[in-house]
Amino acid sequence: MNNIFSEGQVLLINKPYDWTSFDVVRRIRNLIKIKKVGHAGTLDPLATGLLILCTGKFTKKINEYMAQEKEYTGTIVLGATTPTYDLESIPENFTDGSHITAEQVAEAAKSFTGEILQVPPIYSAIKKDGKRAYELARKGQELELDPRKITVSGFTTTFNYPEVHFTIVCSTGTYIRSIANDLGKQLGCGGYLSKLCRTRIGDYTLENSWTMEEAEMNIKEVLHQNG
After folding, report:
1. How many Cα atoms are found within 13 Å in the side-chain-facing hemisphere of 35?
2. What span, in angstroms and rounded, lies between the C-alpha atoms of 190 and 186?
3. Could you write out the DSSP letters of every residue in 27-63?
4. CA distance 130 to 128
C-alpha cells in the first residue's frame, strides 16, 4: 500500500505560517505511514513557502536538494531591532529612519551581494560547544558565532518606509534574518525580518507546490489507488 512512498517520492509543500518544518514532516509521515520522511532545508516557523520533502529511498538525496540555490521574497522593517532578528521576539531599540531613501537602501543592499561572510543569528540551530545556539541564547548566555561564507547572487529592493520589500537569491546556509539585521545596522536605524517566503529551490518552485490541504487530499487518493 505504501510502496510508492517507500520507493521514494519528492513532495513540494507550501509550509503554512506558524508551522515548524518538522510539523510538516510529522503530518506527512502520519499520512503515508512510513518513518523515512525528511525535509531539505528548514524554514523558520514564521516563514512560509517551498519545503521539499523526500520519502523512502529519496531521503538519501536530501543533501543534494539542500545544496541548491534558493530564492526568497519578504519584508524587512527598518527603525527597530529584535533579539531573534524577526518577529519571534518583540521589537526594541526604536530609531527614526524616516530620512532614509530608496536609493540608500538599494546601495546598502549591494554590499550584501556576491560572496560575503555572514554571522548567523544566535537564535539559530547551529551548534556551539555541543549545544544548539538558541538554547544557550534563551538561557541568557553570551555567545559569538563564527562567520560563514555565503553567496548572495541577487538582492533587489523596493522601499516605502519603514518597509523594505525584497527578493533575494542565495546559496544554502544563508540566514535572511541576519541580512535583515545587518542591513538595518548598515543604514544606522536597525532592522528586522517581518515576512519571509521561500519561492524557489533549484528548479523547484512554489507555484508547483501543494498546500497542506492539497497534500493530504492527494496523498490519500494515491494511497487509495495503490491500496
Report:
1. 0
2. 8
3. HHHHHHT-S-EEESS---TT-EEEEEEEEGGGGGGHH
4. 5
Specify the pLDDT at position 224. Answer: 84
- Phi and psi at residue 81, to the nearest 5°: -130, 165
Kindly give, in sequence order, each residue whose CB lies less than 8 Å from that of residue 55, ignoring residues fewer than 6 positions away: 5, 6, 8, 9, 11, 28, 32, 34, 36, 37
* DSSP designation for 137: H
Tally the C-alpha atoms within 13 A of residue 44's C-alpha that lie toward its C-beta: 24
- What pLDDT score does 227 carry? 67
Catalytic residues, by residue number, are 44
Q: How far is CA 19 from the centre of its chain?
A: 12
Distance, in Å, from the CA atom of 220 to the CA atom of 85, rounded to the nearest integer, reads 39
Residue 69, classed as helix, strand or coil, is: coil
**Contacts of 26 by beta carbon, 8 Å cutoff, 6+ apart:** none
Contact 79, 189 (CB under 8 A): yes
Give the count of alpha carbons within 13 A of 2, CB side only: 14
For 182, phi then psi, to 5°, come to: -70, -35
Residue 19 has pLDDT above 90, yes or no: yes
Is pTM beyond 0.85? Reply is: yes
Asked if residue 186 lies in contact with residue 50, where contact means CB atoms within 8 angstroms, the answer is: no
Question: In angstroms, rounded to a whole number, what is the distance separating the alpha carbons of residues 222 and 130?
Answer: 42
Residue 212 has pLDDT above 80, yes or no: yes
